[in-house]
Structures are given as C-alpha cells and as structure tokens.
Amino acid sequence: MRVLPSAFFNEVAVHLPCDAALVVERLAAQGILAGVPGARLWPSYPELTPVLLLAATETTTDADLDALITALPEAIAE
Predict the structure, then answer these.
(1) Residue 11, phi then psi, degrees to nearest 5
(2) Which of 23, 35, 59, 63 could join 54 in a cystine, given CB atoms 3.0 to 4.6 angstroms apart?
(3) CB contact at 8 A, 30 and 69
(4) Residue 65 above 70 pLDDT?
(5) Which residues have C-beta within 8 Å of that of residue 38, sequence separation ≥ 6?
(6) C-alpha dihedral, 19 to 34 to 48 to 38, nearest 10°
(7) Three-class SS string for the chain?
(8) Is-contact 40 34, C-beta < 8 A?
(9) Residue in 2, 3, 69 with CA at minimum distance from that of residue 30
C-alpha cells in the first residue's frame, strides 16, 4: 500500500494491492466506513480500481482511525 501523492491535507488517495471496492465492502461489514473507491468516482478509468480515497476531518476520532488502521491489513489480505 502506498499514499498518492506523498503530500496531502485531509484527503488522501491510497493505492492498494487489490480492488478498493472489495476492501470498502469488507470494512463496512465491520462497521468501518473506509472511504470511496476511485473507480466509483471515475468508472472510465479502470486503473483506479485499486485506489481508495480516504478523508479525515474534525469529526474523525482517534478511535475511528485506530479501527481503520487495525482492520485494513486484514481486509486487504482477504
């Protein structure tokens, strides 16, 4: 997994080693709202299939971030 680009504010694109939509579904099943698959926003660009768009705002808690950080590796590996 890598961050695209390396500089960001409160939104970030992450390149995953698998389909981002599957990861979002797996995390949603655990009650974690993980972000938006890039291919959902730009369906005519299949190269965005592994890109996950994440955002963190003032309403995002440390517990929200911890839950995502803990669950993400397993969701990617499934």
Answers:
(1) -125, 145
(2) 35
(3) no
(4) yes
(5) 13, 20, 45, 48, 49, 51, 52, 53
(6) 140
(7) CEEECCCCCCEEEEECCCCHHHHHHHHHCCCCCCCEEHHHHCCCCHHHCCEEEEECCCCCCHHHHHHHHHHHHHHHHC
(8) no
(9) 69
pLDDT band of residue 5 (cuts 50, 70, 90) is low
15: β partners: 2, 51
Mean pLDDT of the chain, nearest integer? 90
Alpha-carbon span 51 to 78, nearest angstrom = 17
Tokens of 30: 């655990």
* Cα–Cα–Cα angle for 6, 78, 33, rounded to 5 degrees: 60
